[in-house]
Amino acid sequence: MIPAAHPAVSGAGALRTGTGYAPCHHGEILQGVFLDGDGRRCAGLVTLPMAGPGSHAEFLRRPGTAPDALTALPADRTKAMLAAALTVAECAERAAQPPCGGELRLTGDIPVGLGMGSSTSDVIATVRAVADSYGLRLPADTVARLAVRAEQACDPLMMDGRPVLFAQREGKVLEVLGPALPPLVVVGCILGGGAPVDTLSLPVRTPAEADADHVRAFERLRALLRRAVATGDVQLLGEVATASAWRGQQVLGHPEFDALTGIARRVGAAGVQIAHSGAVAGLLFDPAAPSLRHRVRSCLRALDSHGIPATRTFTTTKEIPHGPAHRGVDRPAGPDTARRPARMPAF
Fold this sequence. Notes:
Strand content: 25-35%
Strand order of the largest sheet: 2-3-5-4
Structural class: alpha+beta
Helix content: 25-40%
Order of helices and strands: EEEEHEHEHEEEHHHEEHE
Shape: globular
Oligomer: single chain
């Protein structure tokens, strides 16, 4: 039996154009292999939320057309197209209507290939837009299930910034860590010149292949992060993120990693975080730290001296005024422009 969705406010009359939005993230704070409630190993992650860039979707149903009569602008968003088809089937059954085709339109400004969740943002915005066209708001767990079916693994962007340990390949929350992360100031940068990471070429170890020591290490980091969230301890959160980033380097091997952690120590950052499937990285600061602006300026100078491009300085809720300004967008905002890899540092 399909659970009821929460009805959205809708007007009578002509078909509505459904709209949806989803944010991006700034890579991971923690990613590894963890135990679920049944003691089963599964891959999981905690992302660093980021306000600003996101994906917007519009969907207009065409009743009476075949369910596969779907079009999209841009036409290359194949994962979003599949998400639209899956969501039409879901919502049509909930609404007791025959599934049909429709038109999907996506716009956004998330750089591609840096590990900021651009494809998941497209997918979730699409799911929300299709549901909205039926006058529905789907629960987060349903959105997650559809997103995983559309792209095999997804980020927890449907949780709207709540810190959760999320099983990205199963679309389920392993643990809600708290209502919000401790306040953070993040100096963003990109590694490897901003070249997209081909995640399909990376060696992958399945959760079943992880040894007991590996799992214990990540369960310990999970417990420390839980404590950091509960107590608002930015320093402890930074230590967890740095430890997770260090483990991720065993696969990613960013040559700038040692320079990045060295800069963090010299300028008094709480730690570093790096996208485990991309090139975006950040140095984490406690906003209550003394001489914060001096620390941030010193950090930006040090990054520049090491040839590591800084992108923007932001908090977990908004951009810092003295952070680097936007100098362009690598992901085209126009729906008729083909998606291309992001290689420039600005976003």
